[in-house]
Design brief:
Strand content: 15-25%
Low-confidence stretches: none
Number of helices: 8
Helix content: 25-40%
CATH class: Alpha Beta
Largest sheet: 9 strands, mixed
Protein name: Elongator complex protein 6
Number of strands: 9
Main location: cytoplasm
Radius of gyration: 18 Å
Pathway: tRNA modification; 5-methoxycarbonylmethyl-2-thiouridine-tRNA biosynthesis
Strand order of the largest sheet: 3-2-4-5-1-6-7-8-9
Family: Belongs to the ELP6 family.
CATH architecture: 3-Layer(aba) Sandwich
Structural class: alpha/beta
Pfam family, one: ELP6
CATH topology: Rossmann fold
CATH superfamily: P-loop containing nucleotide triphosphate hydrolases
Mean pLDDT: 89
Distance between the termini: 39 Å
Amino acid sequence: QDKFTLLRDTRTDGSFLVHHFLSFYLRAGCKVCFVALLQSFSHYSIVAQKLGVSLTAAKERGQLVFLEGLKSCLDLLFGEEEEQSGQPSPLQFISESTSNLKALFDFVRTSLTPTDSDAWKGPVLLVDDLSVLLSLGATPVAVLDFVHYCRVAVCSQLKGNVVVLVHSNEDSEDEDNELVVNSLCHHSDLILWVEGLATGFCKDVHGQIKIIRRVSLELTAEQDHVQVYQYKIQDKNVTFFARGLSAAVL
């Protein structure tokens, strides 16, 4: 509870971690608000089925609140967005001159605030991926403000968890994105940093993951705990192993 987890990928695709956390929290009986800005609902649903979870069933029983960012953007741009119960679209900032993510935050808070009929274990906010908000025109300050308010509402007030994916490239000239990534790294309780292999493509090793536990956030004299593994993505799971100890080498 009360943890902010940052999923960061560089030179590779870290979306397998999003699918893991989505299926993990749904199986654990948590209430999940999934702000999906990168793919369609059917994409996440197909992958979740392979992992033994039905997103459609989770939506019907009220456990999963799914914001399909691609569809909402198109509806807003072409004027087909229907206001539900008098509320503006969560991505309303796209059609406004100001980069204000308050509508998106209100959507998250409303979705995860428990009602009397809820029997879920705890609220979870999952965002895939935060970098898209910058591409849609939001400023870095607005994105960081949104994350801050979500942390206060979900982690501190509702005692839940926040999991956010961001893309990063250390050689990138996108200063706004790197500003957001570096700021989030300083505030995260746990960082899962997925990187492509520096040596290039390998069919038996798809990349490496750096697990950084931010012990320094607890104001102790200890250094952050860092573990590094390599991994191989398979059809229904992911295999992790120490560097240089893949099946191909052994």
